[in-house]
């Protein structure tokens, strides 16, 4: 009787039902031309799946603690983002040669300026000063800067291939180096220097885990982990179903094709954005920064190697090199980020500056 009641209580929760409905919408829309009214329904399912993903990510994070919780969501989202990019590149042909670059760079700008700036703003509004661990956050920012330069800047200046492209040997080196750097960072974050990535109090002491909420059981955590993956698959799959409408809308509006990559990155990063802002509202800014910078790092460190492997059977060129405007934005992001991270404290000003850079990125994507 208890088992039946527990199952009914579980299946009645919207966080379980909504991801399943979103997956059903994905199944019926996959590979089909979807009418406008159906696109609206899929968009609603997409929004519901995002909220459900955030809920289940928070359950898993509460069980395993920081920084493992942030790592679970960042890696899960990025793996499925890679699948989305590869799928769109297979379907899109030569016109998607810059899709990986556009999406990865958009993810870096969204995470390192949009999410980071918004979380600093929320944290500063709550406590006047947002505090975090400069050692861990600085290490994460340095790794993001290195990965971005290695994979997105160097192709513009290499001479083995015409245009902003790597040669096969250079692409293989960049892919292996990205994986090694990402793996090294994860080892440092979760094993050797885990305390560098834990939330801190206003006095700089390590913040204790929330004690007012009981830890979820193993069964609840397992169910939430499975449903998190289901919700993320639904998010990316439904985003793919909506993407033709987005592409046609971008083309009809006369906007650059790079805007498609920005929209895709915004959709895919919605769960992390909501989770990061919620953490900042609870004065756990370090958790927010773990999510933001960890997502940027995973987006590069996992996407580029996967795309490099996929080029074995993908036709057409792979353009990874950034143009001059984007390189300036990346350099500005790294410099401002370093100045923001170094003190271990930030005010409304730092949050506003990062949001200003993000606004410039969005504006220049629309009007290059």
TrEMBL record:
<dbReference type="GO" id="GO:0005886">
    <property type="term" value="C:plasma membrane"/>
</dbReference>
<protein>
    <submittedName>
        <fullName>Ionic transporter y4hA</fullName>
    </submittedName>
</protein>
<feature type="transmembrane region" description="Helical">
    <location>
        <begin position="289"/>
        <end position="314"/>
    </location>
</feature>
<feature type="transmembrane region" description="Helical">
    <location>
        <begin position="12"/>
        <end position="31"/>
    </location>
</feature>
<dbReference type="InterPro" id="IPR052946">
    <property type="entry name" value="Alkaline_pH_Ca-Antiporter"/>
</dbReference>
<dbReference type="Pfam" id="PF01699">
    <property type="entry name" value="Na_Ca_ex"/>
</dbReference>
<feature type="transmembrane region" description="Helical">
    <location>
        <begin position="225"/>
        <end position="243"/>
    </location>
</feature>
<feature type="transmembrane region" description="Helical">
    <location>
        <begin position="37"/>
        <end position="56"/>
    </location>
</feature>
<feature type="transmembrane region" description="Helical">
    <location>
        <begin position="320"/>
        <end position="341"/>
    </location>
</feature>
<feature type="transmembrane region" description="Helical">
    <location>
        <begin position="170"/>
        <end position="188"/>
    </location>
</feature>
<keyword id="KW-1133">Transmembrane helix</keyword>
<dbReference type="GO" id="GO:0015386">
    <property type="term" value="F:potassium:proton antiporter activity"/>
</dbReference>
<feature type="transmembrane region" description="Helical">
    <location>
        <begin position="68"/>
        <end position="90"/>
    </location>
</feature>
<dbReference type="InterPro" id="IPR004837">
    <property type="entry name" value="NaCa_Exmemb"/>
</dbReference>
<feature type="domain" description="Sodium/calcium exchanger membrane region">
    <location>
        <begin position="37"/>
        <end position="190"/>
    </location>
</feature>
<feature type="transmembrane region" description="Helical">
    <location>
        <begin position="105"/>
        <end position="125"/>
    </location>
</feature>
<feature type="domain" description="Sodium/calcium exchanger membrane region">
    <location>
        <begin position="224"/>
        <end position="366"/>
    </location>
</feature>
<feature type="transmembrane region" description="Helical">
    <location>
        <begin position="255"/>
        <end position="277"/>
    </location>
</feature>
<keyword id="KW-0472">Membrane</keyword>
<dbReference type="GO" id="GO:0015385">
    <property type="term" value="F:sodium:proton antiporter activity"/>
</dbReference>
<feature type="transmembrane region" description="Helical">
    <location>
        <begin position="348"/>
        <end position="366"/>
    </location>
</feature>
<keyword id="KW-0812">Transmembrane</keyword>
<feature type="transmembrane region" description="Helical">
    <location>
        <begin position="137"/>
        <end position="158"/>
    </location>
</feature>
């Amino acid at each position: 009787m208890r088992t039946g009641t527990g199952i009914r209580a579980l299946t009645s929760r919207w966080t379980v039902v909504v991801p399943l409905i979103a997956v059903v919408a994905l199944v019926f829309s996959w590979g089909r031309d979807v009418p406008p009214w159906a696109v609206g329904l899929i968009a609603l399912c997409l929004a519901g799946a995002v909220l459900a993903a955030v809920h289940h990510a928070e359950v898993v994070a509460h069980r395993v603690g920081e920084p493992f919780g942030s790592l679970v969501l960042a890696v899960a989202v990025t793996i499925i983002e890679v699948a989305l990019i590869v799928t769109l590149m297979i379907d899109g042909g030569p016109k998607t040669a810059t899709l990986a670059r556009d999406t990865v760079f958009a993810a870096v700008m969204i995470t390192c300026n949009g999410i980071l700036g918004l979380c600093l703003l929320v944290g500063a509004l709550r406590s006047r000063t947002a505090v975090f661990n400069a050692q861990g956050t600085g290490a994460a920012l340095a790794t993001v800067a290195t990965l971005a330069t290695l994979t997105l800047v160097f192709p513009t200046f290499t001479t083995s291939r015409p245009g902003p492209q790597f040669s096969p040997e250079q692409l293989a080196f960049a892919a292996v180096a990205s994986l090694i750097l990402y793996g090294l960072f994860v080892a440092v974050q979760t094993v050797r220097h885990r305390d560098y990535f834990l939330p801190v109090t206003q006095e700089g002491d390590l913040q204790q885990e929330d004690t007012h909420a009981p830890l979820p059981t193993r069964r609840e955590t397992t169910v939430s982990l499975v449903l998190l993956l289901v919700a993320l698959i639904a998010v990316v799959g439904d985003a793919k179903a909506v993407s033709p409408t987005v592409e046609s809308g971008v083309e009809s509006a006369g906007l650059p094709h790079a805007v498609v990559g920005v929209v895709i990155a915004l959709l895919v990063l919605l769960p992390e954005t909501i989770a990061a802002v919620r953490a900042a509202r609870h004065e756990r800014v370090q958790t927010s920064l773990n999510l933001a910078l960890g997502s940027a790092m995973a987006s590069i460190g996992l996407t580029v190697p996967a795309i490099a492997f996929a080029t074995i059977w993908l036709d057409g060129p792979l353009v990874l090199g950034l143009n001059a405007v984007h390189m300036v934005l990346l350099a500005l992001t790294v410099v401002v980020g370093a100045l923001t991270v170094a003190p271990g404290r930030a005010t409304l000003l730092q949050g506003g500056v990062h949001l200003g850079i993000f606004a410039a990125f969005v504006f220049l994507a629309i009007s290059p």
